[in-house]
Amino acid sequence: FKGVQGISPFVLPVVYGFCKFAGFTVDGVDVSMGLIARRSRLRAGMRFCRRGVDPEGNVANFVETEQVVRAGGAVSSYVTVRGSIPLHWGHEDSSGDWTQIKPGLVLEKEDTTWQQLRDHNLYPLSMHFESLKRCYGRVLVLNLVEKRGPEEAIGSAFRSVFDQYCEVAGGGEQQYFEFEFHRHVGGMSASGWDCGQVELLNAFGDKGGGMSEAARCGVFLSGTGSNAEGAPTVVSEQGGVIRVNCIDCLDRTNLAQSVLARWMLGVQLEAVGAVTPSERDAISHGNVNCFSLLQEGHKGIWADHGDAVSMQYAGSQALRSDLARTGKRTLHGVLADGVCSV
User: Given CB 3.0 to 4.6 Å as the disulfide criterion, which of 2, 82, 114, 221 pairs with 235?
Assistant: First the structure.
């Protein structure tokens, strides 16, 4: 029915994803904060059955997540995306081996040379990133896969093909960052996660320049006024997006996105006039003494978001959900992860 005149009143828009909002008081200002996640209908399918990219550049488990902050009539939003590594890859056939719970990772045509592998994947990867740039502007890639073990080959191939794409595309409208999540965030201690967050912000921010690039991309902000048509006045628009991935684009990706979103939460709260610059910095760096209820609520909403997205793609809640909610690994969380992994 696309293009049919007068059909709009009879069509109900439906979003498959996640939505949750909560209210807080910040320095006497009523603030509403929440997330809206939208899952792509393209290359749909469950984990292990649907991976990588299709010939048109659509990737599995592609989810756009919008963090919205409202205060005093002003609205700010910040968008991040996640999606499977945009290469032709999947899993080994383990149907004859009942002892192999998690099948191994394989690149299609892995017996060819590296040059043939890059050529085979360059077009769909290019289609994917060109689509992202048309929709969002600049693209900052944050790859969380491991540099050793079964994930190494996929990660190395991604970097190699992405570098080749950058040589062809040029323009500097895309940047690539890496962060080995498991190496920096280990054990069950709160200090391990605290250090991991600092390492992530350092790798993506101070050392790599990612946070400055993300800040340069900005956030969407509409003011309290209105234009001639009565629509809210747009003060600023977001000019780029961070694309985060691990192998499944679930638990690791959600934790990393929540840290980056907390950083931008301070920026959004300042944009809507709810906090001062010093309070913005305290929130962005996770200072628990600054609006602790707000920060706990932010962690809880992102943890619920991670569980919902994981349930849709994997059929179970996200692993390390306790880390997202409490900032540390717990025995209950470890046992829950074991149940979800079986």
Answer: 221
Q: Is 263 helix (H, G, I), strand (E, B) or coil?
A: helix
Q: In sequence order, which residues have a C-beta less than 8 Å from that of residue 161 and are 6 or more positions away?
A: 87, 117, 118, 121, 122, 125
Task: Name 283's Cβ contacts closer than 8 Å, sequence gap at least 6.
Answer: 262, 265, 266, 269, 275, 290, 291, 294, 295
Helix (H) / strand (E) containing 19:
strand 17-26
Give the tens place of pLDDT for each residue, 115-145: 777 778 999 999 999 999 999 999 999 999 9
The two tokens of residue 295 are 């920060």
pLDDT, residue 188, reads 47
The dihedrals phi and psi of 51, each to the nearest 5 degrees, come to -130, 165
Do 143 and 155 meet the contact criterion of CB atoms below 8 Å apart?
A: yes
At 49, the pLDDT band (50, 70, 90 cuts) reads confident
Three-point CA angle 339, 328, 177, nearest 5°:
95
**Helices 152-169, 114-136: inter-axial angle, 10-degree rounding:** 60
Token pair, residue 191, equals 């200090």
Q: What is the mean pLDDT of the chain?
A: 84
Name the DSSP class of 103. P
**pLDDT-derived band of residue 61, with 50, 70 and 90 as boundaries?**
very high
**Rounded distance, CA 287 to CA 105, Å?**
39
- β-pair type (240-245, 232-236): unpaired
The pLDDT of residue 28 is above 50: yes
Name, in order, each residue with C-beta under 8 angstroms of 64's C-beta and a sequence gap of 6 or more.
Answer: 37, 38, 40, 79, 80, 81
Distance CA(56)–CA(146), nearest Å, equals: 27
pLDDT of residue 110: 55
Record the tokens describing residue 276, joined without a space: 């001062």
